[in-house]
Every structure is written in C-alpha cells, then in structure tokens.
Design goal:
- The protein is α+β, with helices and mostly antiparallel strands.
- The protein has a single domain, classed as tt1808, chain A (Alpha-Beta Complex).
- The chain contains 1 helix and 6 strands; from the N terminus they run βαβββββ.
- Strand 3 and strand 4 form a beta hairpin.
C-alpha cells in the first residue's frame, strides 16, 4: 500500500515509479491511496513488469482487494485525510 505524499515529485514517484517497481518484482496487489485526487487505485495481475488491471474508486466506497489479499476495505474515513 502507498499513500501519496504532497511532495512535488509525488506524481512521478508515487504513481509511476513505485508501481512499475512493484509490478516488476511480482507484488500481486498494489493499493495507492491518492490524497490529491480523493481516490484509491488497486493495481493487480502483474505480468511482464506491468500491472494488467487497475481500478480506481472514490474515497467513501467499499472496496474488496483481489486475491491473494482478499480483504474488504471501508474507505469512508479516507475522506478525513485528503488534501
């Protein structure tokens, strides 16, 4: 899981570089909580150094993470920490 920072390089580092690095080593599920966009994105199914599936949800939604994680998250409280 990654929570984006408010650092000027956050877009490149948090949203692209780390996602690529995790996919390359086969991390099966990568969750990004984006405080700037008030959403979270679930990346899954890594193959050939890239995630084949990425689904975004607004803060406040209930999200079930894919296997092997398989847990359900209530993201309502994330609204309190955005921006």
């Amino acid at each position: 899981m990654e929570v984006t920072s408010f650092h000027p390089d956050a877009d490149r580092r948090d949203r692209r570089d780390e996602r690529a690095a995790y996919a390359q080593v086969g991390i099966p599920v990568y969750l990004v909580i984006d405080r700037d966009e008030d959403m979270l994105t679930v990346h899954s199914d890594p193959e050939d150094g890239m995630y084949r599936r990425s689904v975004s949800y607004a803060h406040g939604k209930t999200v079930t993470l894919p296997a092997p994680v398989g847990i359900t998250l209530d993201t309502e409280k994330l609204k309190d920490y955005a921006h």
